Amino acid sequence: MTVRILQNPWRLLLAINAAVIVGVFVHKIQLPPYVPYIHLLVDYHFGFIKRALIGAIVALFTAKVPVWLVFALGGATWLATLGLYARLFQNTFGFSGRTLPLFVFTAGSPFFLKNFMHTLGHFDIYGCALAIVLLLMPAGSLVFVATAALFSIILVLIHHIHLLMYVPTIVTIVVIRHYLACGCDRSNVVFGVIALAAVSALFFAAQFMGTMPIPEADFGAYLKSRMADPARTDLLQFAYIWYQPLAKEVADTWGRLPHNILGLPVFALLIWLHTPLWRYLASLIGTLASERHKRLVIAALVGISVAYLVMFAMVFDYSRWISNWAVCMFLILHAVKMLPTKQEAALIPAEDRKTNIFGLILTLIPRVGIVRPF
Question: Residue range 143-150: average pLDDT?
């Protein structure tokens, strides 16, 4: 029995991942929910501002926001994302002994669900969840393109940085699932260009015209009026981000760069530990029936990565950005699998010793972090 588990440990690794996630959750609820809590307080009371959609929705249901709501909403979103990804994996690959290593390398990656648990309440996971919905829904009509545009608008209203974080992945999914599958004609191309222009215009409006229009003291007083416990002023320490211009964010990022860049070797190591997964993605691209499809997929992967490099230069939450970049790669893997191929790509081997070791290490890593590794 022991020898068989060592040779094919993937069910055991899946169980260990579940235990690790529970541990991350227990640790998370002991930490102060600084930024996620403020996002539930800020709404459109003073007009159009950035990062206010979630707070505006919460304001429709309650005038006073308790701290536990951060964990309730974040937990519900995390569970929904888990369910969506499980359904996506079932649809794309199916669950079997052959596909279990692939599931562990994606769903069990410290970049993915475990890190979303650590960043519970942050806005990153919404981009992932909506991208998965697009991978699950029918893509044969302009309704699909319109839905993708609506999702992108929602994400930019949640936080404008989604234009770099998940909108490029959404665009890639639309191109692969609709334009490559259904072809391009004047109507769907024009519709797509207009939709992308609208999302981009909204981003610039949020970035450059979405600053809080009232003095910080008045803003702080309004936030306290929405708190269930106004005495918890420690939860408002990041209210300044609604006043901070882009130039200040970039200056802060570059000021912290000499210290934060020390984490790059750790990120590189974590990416290297996913080598079996990257090899499978490369193999999958190599089996595509169309050379045009191959070139477009490679260009999309480069474009998504460039968007994250721009984000690295603007905001210093490096652990979150590298984690979400990896998640985008996981999602593109599913999109590529939906394209016509000339042969079946070999899955990640279930009984390869090196692959097993990499899977075990990734399973035992509880999360990547928010700014610096771990």
Answer: 97
